[in-house]
Amino acid sequence: MQLIDSYARPLSAPRMTASLLVAFSSFTSIASADITQNVSGGGYATVFPSGCGESFTAVDANIGLAGFMLIDVNPGAGNIAYNILKGDGLDGSVVASRSSSGPPINVGFKGFFDLDFSGTTLSVGQQYTLEMVTSSPRWAAFYSTFDVYSGTSYNAGTFYSDFTFHILAVPEPSTLTLLALGAIGAFSIRRRIR
Questions:
Q1: Who contacts 177 (Cβ-Cβ below 8 Å, separation ≥6)?
Q2: Domain map of the chain by residue range?
Q3: Alpha-carbon span 182 to 193, nearest angstrom
Q4: Pairing status of strand 127-134 against strand 110-121
Q5: What's the whole-model pTM score?
């Protein structure tokens, strides 16, 4: 098969390689799936001493980062721990746990605070709960006043429509390979142009 460009000329080897990479990457979907509930419009709830949680259904077996959108409401020291619990609710068994001590988190921090859950494997389609616990009144978690995500929110028995959280999947090896092939193709085209 001979590829033809828009001027009806056969493509040179570098241009054909670039065309094939573009075509291949546009027809290949990213193999990892993230869960994100980032709609704002509510407020924030303190998470000390009871903690908070948001249930979710796993859409990818391998997760990387997980976290809530937090705000530093009482600057000072205080650690944060996230647990991934089996099932919908705060009483499930712990699948994985990560913690971080603070500071070094900047005073006045506002944004997603993620911890690395690489190496944690979930069962796709199963329910889990991401729980945050802290030993300090420093942190509050953002929530939305309307239900955007299908999971359930937990905070000392008080219901909020959705906490602002995300679970980021680890890119599959095929995605990383595609990225590497694209970089090699772009480098070789650039090199041949010079």
A1: none
A2: 13-31+174-193, 35-170
A3: 17
A4: unpaired
A5: 0.69
